[in-house]
Amino acid sequence: MMNRLNLYKKNNILKSLVLCALFTVVNQAHAALLERTIVVDGGPNVDAYYDDVLDITWLKNANFMETTDWDGNDETFRNWADAKTWVAQLSIGEYDDWRLPSVQPLDAIDGFDYYQTLDGSTDVGYNSTSEMHELAYMFYANLGLESRINSNNTWNSRWVDYNFYEVNTQSLGNRIDIDSFYSAQYWYDEEYEAKAGNAWVFDTRVGRQVGLSQTLTGGRAWAVRDGDVASAVTSEVPEPASVFLFASALLGCFIRRQKKFC
Question: How many domains does the chain have?
């Protein structure tokens, strides 16, 4: 009787693992970055990602400014005004409607909540995966990168400090290939109204969203545009295949145990 009871408990545990794995597959399958290529007459073509959750297209190169030499200045650390000017004049192939990523308040009625939290429950702070915070969503949800501080106010042992240098995104998180992605402050498109003269930034070094002076010359600009660009889909991320295989293996194990029990 005891053996039969233990087997029953083990089967229930195995059922739970299978259901959790399958649930993860379903959740991941609906959210993806889709590889795109923007065709440029005379070349070179430009790689991008279409985010099918935010419905925006990100340039694969997170520091595309360095390839344009738009004002004769090789410096790619820019203040907010320069970043907005650059992205507004940017034209790639048939697309000339580029902008900086957007940040919108979590509470559409009361507006931005400037109180810093660690769990993404306000507009300022760490660990936001809200679709209203486009850079934060890209950092956490799409790229699977880590903040310096956990939501429970403990240091995150998985955090990697690139100390303002280029980040190898293929070795971290969801292992998505982003070119020239730096540990830096990336500008949002909107002003930070809680303090005059500030604008929103997302700090990819620590995973924090906050306001900084618009005259800060250490910011970077990542160009995005609304909607998709015309190109064939070549891959999706995050990739749910490994989770699906794991779930399938668990399911097969469960079926074999059930047959043995019967």
Answer: 2
Structural domain including 22 reads 2-30+240-261
> At 192, is the secondary structure helix, strand, or coil?
coil
Cβ neighbours, 10 Å, residue 51: 21
Q: What is the DSSP letter of 24?
A: H
- Contact, 177 vs 90, CB < 8 A? no
The pLDDT, as a whole number, for residue 8 is: 44
169/154 Cα distance (integer angstroms): 24
pLDDT value of residue 210? 98
Looking at the chain, the number of H-run helices and the number of E-run strands are 4, 11
If asked whether residues 255 and 148 sit together in one domain, one would say no
Residues of the chain with pLDDT under 70: 1-31, 72, 74, 230-262
Verify that 125 and 19 share a domain, yes or no: no
Task: Note whether 153 and 145 are within 8 A (CB).
Answer: no
Give the separation between CA 62 and CA 186, rounded to whole angstroms: 9
Do 94 and 17 share a domain, yes or no? no
Same domain, 257 and 168: no
Instruction: Say what the pLDDT of residue 163 is.
Output: 79
Q: Judge if 163 and 42 occupy the same domain.
A: yes
